[in-house]
Design a protein that fits this description.
Elements lengths: L48 E2 L11 E7 L12 E2 H10 L4 E6 L2 E2 L12 H12 L3 E7 L7 H10 L2 E5 L1 H4 L8 E4 L3 E5 L3 E2 L6 E9 L1 H17 L18 E3 L5 E7 L11 H11 L3 E6 L14 H11 L3 E7 L8 H10 L4 E6 L14 E2 L3 E4 L3 E5 L5 H5 L3 E7 L3 H14 L3 E3 L14
Parallel strand pairs: 1-12, 2-3, 4-6, 5-10, 6-7, 11-17, 14-15, 15-16
Antiparallel strand pairs: 2-11, 4-8, 8-9, 9-11, 12-13, 13-20, 14-18, 16-21, 18-19, 19-20
Helix pairs in contact: 1-2, 6-7
Length: 442
């Protein structure tokens, strides 16, 4: 949860952007952005499909599955690169702009600092500023004070930092974790900007190279960058291109971007929750889902049956549903546990709990947990997101998801799921023991 002291405390073409408000959004240094108006009503605009990425450069779009695995576990995969390697490489390629949206920023201190895998990332950002790249960093207000030192270091290096009070805007938090390089390359994943996320937490994300998809991400960033200014009207939205862009990659995937929350999107037709329900309704043989936690209740204790109902309908059709949750999401006495207990009793549904063992070097608060958020449907469509499966993440908080249909990625991600599912760290829910007390999950 996003209450205090949680685990988640962490040569794009010149484009035009829109502002659906009385004032204009802050302009990109690389190009002016002009008004296009509000997003069309849901269903009013056709899907725009680009068959390649940065056309001017003649490069094909790319998608790469990227992981983070806790040290001293066997949850890593030799063919998947680590975020700790991919992030600095991407940042070092930046020539003009680097735009980063994160829940919070937390670098290691004390004894953990010298070996922190976030340190090379921050140093890469500092090198980018030094060579003239315009760097912007957007963080949510919730942990901005508690983790202020990392943001202060970025400011001192010349990074423009803004804090978004998402609570006063959407009612939740800026929970998305992403960055965009030169409007051409981007990363979206479950990894927070946190040293723990790169070494002590199980995470999944994707690296994208596609100007249309990067442009869609920048619309989200520009919208929130503007909303971080209290003087910006709530109706402010950035819009740079057609709605619901899908991109064909060199490896065969058809990729699109979904986002949350409803009512605060540059393109309302790209709402994540609607997309998820439609995806679940299409399932014919299998649904493999991993999340930190799963709940049929919102934070105000009102019901949130939408995704649970869709999974139950799928199971009733004979679809095999497998749900893998973190041990934080299986604590006794919490609604998250009650939710998975109830779902596990449905025919064709099986739930297991993934527990990351402690580190031999001692306790690390808010770490050693399975934090990945992804799903594979029929071995053909993959959803890689930043939302836990609870209503507020879709209704009140900024989140993102990358959806890949066909190609090599979905079956590879299913293999990742199978690895965790069959590992010694996974326990069937029915035989899962009581979890010792610990920090609240998010």
């Amino acid at each position: 949860m996003w209450r205090r002291r949680t685990a988640e405390h962490a040569r794009r073409r010149p484009l035009l952007a829109a502002i659906v408000a009385v004032v204009a959004l802050t302009a990109c240094a690389s190009a002016p952005r002009s008004p296009h108006g509000d997003a069309a009503p849901r269903g009013a605009s056709p899907v725009a499909t680009a068959t390649h990425g940065p056309e001017a450069e003649g490069a094909l779009a790319e998608i790469e599955l990227v992981e983070s695995a806790p040290v001293e576990t066997t949850l890593d995969h030799a063919d998947l690169r680590d975020a700790a390697v991919v992030w600095p490489e991407m940042i070092d390629r930046a020539k003009r702009t680097l735009d980063i949206g994160q829940f919070y920023a937390s670098e290691a201190e004390g004894a953990a600092a010298p070996t922190s895998l976030l340190r090379p990332v921050i140093e890469a950002i500092e090198r980018a500023v030094a060579r003239g790249v315009r760097v912007r960093f957007l963080a949510d207000a919730l942990f901005a004070s508690e983790y202020g030192r990392t943001l202060d270091r970025l400011r001192a290096a010349g990074v423009s930092v803004r804090i978004l009070d998402a609570g006063s805007r959407y009612g939740g938090v800026q929970h998305a974790k992403y960055f965009v390089v030169d409007g051409q390359e981007a990363f979206v994943g479950s990894q927070n900007f946190d040293w723990r996320a790169l070494a002590h937490i199980q995470e999944i994300g994707v690296r994208l190279r596609s100007a249309p998809l990067a442009g869609a991400l920048l619309d989200v960033f520009e919208t929130d960058w503007a909303l971080a200014d209290p003087a910006t009207p709530a109706s402010a939205r950035a819009r740079s291109g057609p709605p619901r862009v899908r991109v064909k990659t060199s490896t065969g995937e058809l990729v699109t971007l979904w986002a949350d929350p409803k009512g605060w999107l540059p393109d309302e037709s790209s709402w994540d929750l609607d997309g998820l329900v439609a995806l679940l309704e299409r399932a014919r043989t299998s649904i493999d889902l991993q999340v930190l936690h799963y709940s049929t209740q919102n934070r105000d204790k009102s019901p949130f049956p939408t995704l649970d109902d869709a999974l139950r309908r799928a199971a009733a059709r004979g679809v095999r549903v497998r749900l893998l949750v973190s041990h934080w999401g299986a604590r006794e006495g919490r609604h998250t546990r009650a939710s998975i207990d109830a779902l596990s009793k449905v025919p064709n549904v099986e739930v297991r709990v993934l527990t990351v063992p402690p580190w031999s070097g001692g306790e690390i608060p808010y770490a050693r947990v399975a934090h990945a958020k992804y799903m594979v449907v029929d071995d053909h469509v993959a959803w890689i997101g930043t939302s836990n499966w609870e209503g507020d993440y879709f209704l009140k908080s900024r989140n993102l998801a990358v959806v890949a249909e066909g190609g090599a990625l979905p079956p590879r991600l299913r293999q990742v799921f199978d690895h965790g599912w069959s590992s010694s760290y996974a326990t069937p829910l029915a035989s899962y023991a009581h979890v010792p007390s610990g920090p609240a999950a998010d």
